[in-house]
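dude i think i finally got it to work??
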Amino acid sequence: MVCIGNSWDELLRDYFDSAEYRDLRVFLKREYSEFTVYPDMYDIFNAFKLTDYDGVKALILGQDPYINDGQAHGLSFSVKPGIEPPPSLINIFKEMSGDIGKSAPQNGCLEYLARQGVMLLNAVLTVRKGAPNSHKNKGWETLTDKVISLLNQRQSPVVFILWGRNARDKKSLITNPRHLVVESAHPSPLSAYNGFFGSKPFSKTNDFLIKNAIKPIEW
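look at this
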């Protein structure tokens, strides 16, 4: 029913064969036919397509896709080239500058990170236009919890970057001491000054990767 094109297909086969996913597909078919839903249905699994299981160095977990036209394309916090970066992404770039001294990229597309092993995953992979959390508790959370659990089982170290309460609630799934959890407030303007700014997630991630003889991320 789903063909990602790499090892995620086999690892997630049980979920994609489950009654829960069949029910989710029925729900999504109705939503896409009756409403505007993001991202485009062909972009839903981009986080998996661009970052294979064995290639994951870090996971950045978002909540659900952006809700406005032209923004979401299947990668958490990322927008398509040519689209104005939303406030949360602007704050991510500000922290990146303060942490590692890097200027903001020319656009808000984070595919360059996904191709380096940063899995940009939302807990819920679809959303109705203008309606945050509209696809919450429909079955996506089971999939993304399984992804976190599978990465937790890996022997090769992974950095789990958890921003905000919803992401930090997943910390209980990360039990393997080989891994690093980097957590803080969400980069949203509503919370960024409550612990996101100054949290240094990018340097912490690279320091950990280098310590474990893994090529660091070019943020």
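The longest helix spans residues 19-34.
im so relieved honestly
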